[in-house]
Write a structure and sequence with these properties.
About 45% of the residues lie in helices and about 15% in strands. With about 900 residues, it is an alpha/beta fold. It is globular and about 100 Å long.
């Protein structure tokens, strides 16, 4: 069969070893007509994808999550594969209505085809394209508004399409498209999923190539099954440690820099709390509101509502708290259902938030009131910014969180980090600062030393650093609508323009040594040319928007990245982080520092929680231990509680450690240990506190019982020898006793011996979990084995050796759930016998909790290795009572850190 790409496409570079491995196994991957590759940013997954397309030799449709990445595919094909003399326009199309050998579009455009949409596709700041007409009109209005001078904050791309009367499937058939390439297929809206699944169903002969850097390992079983049905099982995973070991990525480290809110931000928090207090007072004094709440049928019929209430006991409690605060009589059955004799708490924001959420959104059918009355409450709360995206926010307000996440204090953090990095790196510094917004209104303040710089944005950050006049550093701005460069770089840029048949208009920035640049011509070329200024050192500190530079853009010279961006998905944060970790031929010793900015308060920090979630997906070298792992714990400088003194100390230590770049490179080399193979394991780490509770007592009694049985057996054997002269009758009795002792020892001794140490007990639990996962069909690989290790800091580390990454994650999550703090799990396990005066309580992992038969299968597996346990359903009064007991006595609820889940790299010898 002929290959349409012969003489058209041929890779111009040199394949890396791991790419050779993947390409060598290509035919094996294709057994199910699907190839699914997971590859970290910087691995060249786009290049691998193009080579797959070339090998398959048929017309291909490439689907991308954004316009930027769509264009990146075209650029990579033209730059890296097109043979000399071949024109890209003849072979590559960005329009599905005019398909060519390779057609590259967005998932959103595909969806527009299926619904035959006509109008604007407006791509927002997080890569989404908006297709709801009302939202499009709003976005377009905002985009065109003269008042909105920072439109790039909202919109990153607009395309006009007309798919009226367009037959997508007829076009695909006529074009002979036989290959579908999916880039980051899981980061999609539900309607785009449906469009993609419809395409696969209607064109079943397609061969599918799927590429991603961030597979949804933490998704639900249903979501995962949907993803795998679309993309196929993962055939190969290329990890960050492997790429560093081979020299495709540079050694790098994440650092977290903290700040406290400003006085004005603290004042805003106080004002918000006053609004919350006023709303609560209004609700409590409103007789009509009281009447409506009392129409809830569950108040007088708790039996029929028990399971629904106990799915969300806090909601039931909010009704009780409301009635109690009003001095009303409430049915005793309601409190009995809660399962506690404790005094009903006072009305607080968390209870009113829960009550209003149910009344306004979550449980509307249960209240007898007009829609107009409910809308009045919604309007009142929205007018005070106490409802955000249909969520009542009286405790943890998203607007307040956003204010703190984009705290003015962070701009000083940027200043301090930049000064420290400049002091260490000097003219070798290539620092990128990514912001969400441009903040064009600050253009008028440039050069005005009296103007206050108190917000984060491209222009404010530029002005702040310009005022510092940092020796040896040259600032630049690159965004969709604002470009600023040092005046001394103008001549070099002019030469680049001439070489590319382009031109630009320059305008001095007041009396500053900078000029603004208005480039005439290709927008993508504009970005490329300014990037060249950065690469060559005409700019050493580049400030830009994440919408332009966050994905689909590359500058391998970057050695310092400050993420002053707070909006976007994990996929986007992973892409942004990838900007700083690529190797650079001009600097073979390059290392990358990635800075995350965090605002903290005495009451906690949603900002810090967000960074923690991000870190779970990033593998990096531990600050002090000789290991490579995910999670915030590897940044061991971070210590709780956060105080002014501790935050200052942590920041100082971060700056000091960030300056030790040579040591960073050495740490990576030592952690990888020059082993032949590195494998990423998903581990569950059980805290040493467990030794102080049931584990320890069980060990003691196991030892005593086994020792006693062996001692009795020894005595009986000794007596049998001594009494051989007493006659056959006595000997027969002794033989029977010995056999009974042997049977007891065989039955119970082995089980007790297998539980004598925490490590052995964990091994049995792990086996039970693995057995049930196999029964449920969630682990199908045959080369899997539960592994348990012990180290000096953590009691036991459990993980699954072998299997797919998804299977490793499912196993680790189940172990984590088993040892999780008892909260409101659907099923729990309770030992039939008391241990240390109380029963043992464990949670049934969520993966086994949706169906009773799954929960029972897990209970049986655990009972077989740990002794008899009862399965308790917590969605009835008796089960709720046992759950509350477990909250008091369970090991997990008594320990500060019972179990943690993280990714960790192990060599083939571990």
């Amino acid at each position: 069969m002929s290959n349409i790409y012969d003489g058209i496409l041929q890779f111009k570079g040199t394949w890396r070893d791991y790419q050779v491995r993947v390409l060598k196994n290509f035919d094996n991957y294709l057994n199910d007509n699907k190839v699914h590759i997971v590859a970290a940013p910087g691995s060249g997954k786009t290049t691998i994808g193009i080579e797959f397309i070339r090998k398959l030799g048929k017309p291909c449709l490439i689907l991308s999550p954004s316009i930027t990445i769509r264009e990146q595919w075209k650029d990579r094909i033209e730059a890296g594969f097109l043979e000399v003399g071949v024109e890209g326009e003849q072979w590559i199309s960005g329009d599905i209505k005019k398909p060519k050998a390779i057609t590259t579009i967005t998932y959103q455009a595909l969806h527009s085809c299926t619904i035959r949409y006509s109008g604007d596709l407006i791509e927002s700041e997080d890569g989404d394209e908006i297709q709801d007409k009302t939202e499009i009109q709003y976005r377009a209005k905002t985009h065109d508004s003269a008042e909105k001078d920072d439109s790039e904050e909202l919109i990153t791309g607009v395309e006009t399409v007309d798919y009226r009367g367009f037959d997508l499937y007829k076009t695909i058939q006529e074009a002979g498209i036989g290959v579908l390439c999916l880039d980051e297929a899981h980061h999609l809206r539900n309607e785009w999923w449906k469009a993609l699944e419809e395409l696969i169903a209607k064109v079943p002969c397609l061969k599918v190539v799927s590429l991603t850097a961030t597979p949804p390992y933490d998704s639900t079983p249903g979501q995962w099954e949907r993803y795998i049905n679309l993309c196929g099982e993962i055939d190969e995973e290329i990890t960050v440690p492997e790429l560093i070991k081979e020299g495709s990525l540079c050694p790098h480290q994440d650092f977290v820099y903290f700040n406290y809110p400003t006085a004005q931000e603290k004042k805003s928090v106080v004002e918000w709390k006053k609004k919350v207090s006023t709303i609560i007072d209004t609700a409590m004094a409103n007789s009509e509101f009281e009447h409506v709440i009392m129409t809830h049928p569950g108040i007088n019929d708790s039996k029929d509502y028990s399971e629904k209430f106990l799915d969300d006991p806090a909601y039931l409690s909010s009704l009780l708290v409301f009635m109690n605060a009003k001095g009303m009589e409430y049915p005793k059955a309601l409190k009995t259902l809660i399962g506690t004799n404790a005094k009903i708490p006072k009305m607080e924001p968390k209870w009113m938030e829960k009550l209003l959420q149910g009344f306004l959104y979550g449980d509307t059918d249960s209240y007898n009131c007009t829609e107009e009355y409910r809308e009045q409450w919604i309007h009142t709360l929205k007018s005070e910014n106490l409802i955000v995206r249909n969520q009542v926010s009286l405790v943890n307000n998203q607007n307040i969180n956003k204010m703190l996440i984009s705290s003015m204090g962070k701009i000083q953090s940027i200043r301090e980090i930049t000064l420290a990095e400049s002091n260490k790196m000097g003219p070798k510094l290539r620092q990128l600062i990514l912001c969400d917004y441009i903040k064009k209104e600050y253009l008028s303040k440039l050069g005005d030393s009296t103007a206050v710089v108190d917000t984060i944005g491209v222009i404010p950050v530029f002005e702040l650093l310009r005022r510092e006049n940092i020796s040896g550093q040259k600032l630049g701005v690159l965004s969709g609508s604002v470009i600023l460069i040092p005046a001394e770089a103008q001549e070099y840029l002019d030469e680049l323009f001439k070489q590319n048949d382009m031109s630009a208009n320059y305008k001095p920035v007041k009396d500053l040594p900078y000029v603004s640049v208005d480039i005439v011509g290709d927008g993508h070329m504009k970005t490329a040319l300014i990037t060249q200024l950065f690469d060559t050192g005409h700019i050493t500190i580049l400030i830009g928007t994440k919408s332009l530079l966050g994905e689909g853009w590359d500058s391998p010279c970057i050695n310092t990245l400050i993420l002053a961006t707070f909006v976007g998905s994990f996929m986007l944060s992973n892409q942004m982080r990838g900007r700083a970790i690529r190797t650079y031929r001009a600097d073979p010793d390059k290392t990358g520092n990635i800075w995350h900015l965090v605002s903290v308060t005495d009451e906690g920090s949603e900002d810090f929680e967000m960074v923690k979630r991000r870190m779970n997906g990033f593998l990096g070298v531990h600050y002090t231990e000789n290991s490579i792992e995910g999670g915030i714990e590897r940044i061991s400088i971070i210590k709780h509680p956060f105080t002014t003194k501790s935050v200052k100390k942590m920041n100082e230590e971060m700056l000091q450690l960030s300056s030790e770049r040579d040591a960073l490179k050495q740490r990576w080399m030592e952690a990888m240990d020059n082993t032949a193979k590195l494998e990423v394991e998903v581990t569950s780490e059980i805290g040493e506190e467990a030794l102080k509770s049931g584990f320890f007592m069980l060990n003691v009694w196991s030892y005593v019982i086994v020792t006693t049985i062996i001692s009795v057996l020894g005595i009986l054997l000794q007596i049998s020898f001594m009494s051989s002269k007493l006659g056959a009758g006595y000997s027969l009795v002794l033989i029977i006793l010995i056999l009974v002792a042997l049977a007891v020892t065989g039955k119970y001794g082995y089980k007790l011996f297998s539980l004598m140490t925490p490590q052995k007990r964990m091994k049995q639990i792990a086996k039970a979990i693995l057995q049930t996962l196999k029964q449920k069909g969630l682990i199908t690989s045959t080369d899997v084995l539960p592994k348990v290790e012990v180290n000096q800091d953590i009691l036991v580390i459990s993980y699954l050796k072998g299997g797919t990454m998804r299977e490793k994650d499912v196993f680790a999550t189940a172990v984590y759930d088993f040892f999780a703090t008892l909260d409101n799990q659907r099923y729990i396990l309770i030992s039939r016998k008391k241990k240390r005066l109380h029963y043992e309580y464990f949670a049934v992992p969520a993966v086994f909790s949706q169906k009773k038969e799954d929960a029972f299968a897990f209970k049986t597996a655990i009972s077989n290795v740990m002794g008899e346990y009862d399965l308790v359903f917590t969605r009835n009064p008796e089960g709720r009572k046992r759950l509350l007991e477990g909250r008091i006595y369970a090991f997990s609820n008594q320990c500060d850190r019972m179990c943690e889940k993280k990714k960790k790299v192990k060599s083939d010898f571990e």
